[in-house]
């Protein structure tokens, strides 16, 4: 019986470890299956040590499974380490889903608009990317472009997704201490998701900054606020999870093609609405580095609700950039996402590799 279950978990592990490379466009439920990968790693670890203590050769199977699945450990947890810079130049970036600057806590009746804006103003990052950005030209306290941009010495690009661009609207924004020489929109869904970009002139180099907010699950916040809500609506929740996986795979194809055609080194950050054990994450991981994996520590969870163990906000980047610091700002709990930031070492001149150099 032990032999059977060990072999069974070994085969299941191999299938699931490979499934992160299968697009949900071809198998819609693959994104739900991969969520069990952390459980499989724990099971294989228990099997390995149990069989090892029993001096069974069968311990080789879970050992092989752990070796093949080790990459999932790295995307889950990082041991704190120093990453000293060897360059005098650096670039700091921030990504934050600000939830329209008015996220209301369960026990509060007042929005946290001013708290978020004040924190962002005090954050000194060179480049700041915001998802679910709210702009109100008619109310000085909510004129975020002025409060975070011109008053703080930042240039900006703001792409409206819905609303009146001259009055009240929401969309996505990039703010930069450095000159923005080009800007644009990769796509948007006419709701609250999309990807925008800005080409930023950093000294003698130009870097393309992508701000991403991929398709969300469209699950009501009250559903995620307690486990009973999740249980009661599990069928609806599963359906939305499946549709979200499928849509993100389509969006990812558009984004990947756009980044391939970029003439500059790319930094991609934002709210990806997907966990590290996903097609989205591993597709990007094949072509870019992840700042959490390079310079993060701990688990780096970024979701601020009952499902606190989710890391769905990321900062990806291309070489020759080098991440020397990454932080999840868990002390900033004004939104349903925590802000994340990274610092990159700059070795000028930055040169984008051609596809042939990566082969």
Sum this structure up briefly.
With about 350 residues, the chain is α+β, with helices and mostly antiparallel strands.
Task: Kindly describe this structure.
- The protein has twelve helices and twelve strands.
- The protein is of the alpha+beta class and 359 residues long.
- A six-stranded mixed sheet has the order 3-4-2-1-12-11.
Q: Major beta sheet, specifics?
A: 6 strands, mixed
Q: Give me the strand/helix succession.
A: HHHHHEHEHEEEEEHHHEHEHEEE
Named CATH topology of the largest domain: Deoxyribonuclease I, Chain A
Structurally, the number of domains stands at: 2
CATH architecture of the largest domain: 4-Layer Sandwich
What is the CATH C-level name of the largest domain? Alpha Beta
**What share of residues is helical?**
25-40%
Query: Which geometry do the CA atoms define?
Result: globular
What would you call the quaternary organization?
Answer: single chain
Average pLDDT score: 89
Name of the CATH superfamily of the largest domain:
Endonuclease/exonuclease/phosphatase
Helix-and-strand structural type: alpha+beta
Count of individual helical segments = 12
| Radius of gyration over C-alpha positions, nearest whole angstrom | 21 Å
Low-pLDDT runs of 5+ residues are none
Strands, total number:
12
Strand content: 25-35%
Which labels suit this protein?
single chain; 359 residues; alpha+beta; Deoxyribonuclease I, Chain A; 2 domains; six-stranded mixed beta sheet; 12 helices; 12 strands; 26% strand; globular
How are the SSEs ordered, and which strands pair?
Layout: H1 2-19, H2 30-33, H3 37-53, H4 60-68, H5 70-76, E1 89-97, H6 113-122, E2 127-136, H7 144-148, E3 155-163, E4 168-176, E5 180-188, E6 194-202, E7 205-213, H8 221-224, H9 227-232, H10 234-260, E8 265-271, H11 279-287, E9 289-290, H12 291-295, E10 313-317, E11 322-328, E12 340-346
Parallel strand pairs: 1-2, 7-8
Antiparallel strand pairs: 1-12, 2-4, 3-4, 5-6, 6-7, 8-10, 9-10, 11-12
Helix pairs in contact: 1-3, 1-4, 3-4, 10-11
């Amino acid at each position: 019986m032990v032999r059977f279950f060990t072999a069974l978990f070994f085969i299941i592990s191999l299938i699931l470890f490979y499934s992160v490379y299968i697009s949900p466009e071809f198998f819609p439920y693959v994104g739900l299956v991969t969520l069990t990968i952390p459980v499989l790693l724990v099971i294989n670890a228990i099997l390995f040590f149990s069989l090892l203590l029993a001096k069974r050769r069968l311990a080789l199977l879970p050992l092989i499974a752990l070796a093949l699945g080790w990459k999932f450990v790295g995307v889950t947890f990082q041991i704190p380490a120093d990453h000293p810079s060897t360059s005098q130049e650096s670039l700091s970036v921030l990504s934050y889903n600000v939830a329209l600057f008015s996220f209301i806590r369960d026990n509060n009746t007042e929005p946290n608009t001013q708290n978020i804006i004040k924190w962002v103003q005090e954050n000194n990052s060179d480049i700041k990317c915001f998802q679910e950005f709210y702009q109100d030209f008619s109310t000085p306290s909510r004129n975020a472009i002025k409060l975070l941009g011109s008053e703080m010495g930042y240039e900006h690009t703001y792409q409206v997704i819905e609303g009146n661009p001259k009055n009240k609207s929401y969309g996505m924004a990039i703010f930069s201490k450095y000159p923005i020489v080009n800007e644009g929109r990769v796509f948007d869904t006419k709701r609250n998701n999309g990807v925008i970009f800005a080409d930023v002139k950093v000294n003698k180099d130009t870097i393309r900054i992508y701000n991403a907010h991929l398709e969300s699950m469209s699950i009501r916040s009250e559903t995620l606020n307690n486990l009973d809500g999740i249980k009661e609506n599990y069928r609806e929740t599963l359906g939305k999870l499946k549709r979200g996986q499928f849509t993100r795979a389509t969006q990812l194809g558009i984004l990947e093609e756009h980044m391939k055609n970029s003439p500059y080194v790319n930094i991609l950050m934002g709210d990806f609405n997907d966990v590290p054990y996903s097609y989205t994450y591993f597709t990007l991981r094949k072509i870019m580095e992840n700042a959490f994996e390079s310079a993060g520590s701990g688990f780096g969870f970024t979701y601020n609700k009952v499902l606190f163990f989710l890391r769905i906000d990321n900062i990806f980047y291309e070489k020759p950039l080098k991440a020397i610091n990454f932080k999840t700002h868990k002390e900033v709990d004004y939104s349903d996402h925590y802000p994340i930031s990274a610092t990159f070492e700059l070795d000028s001149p930055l040169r984008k590799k051609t596809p042939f150099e990566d082969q």
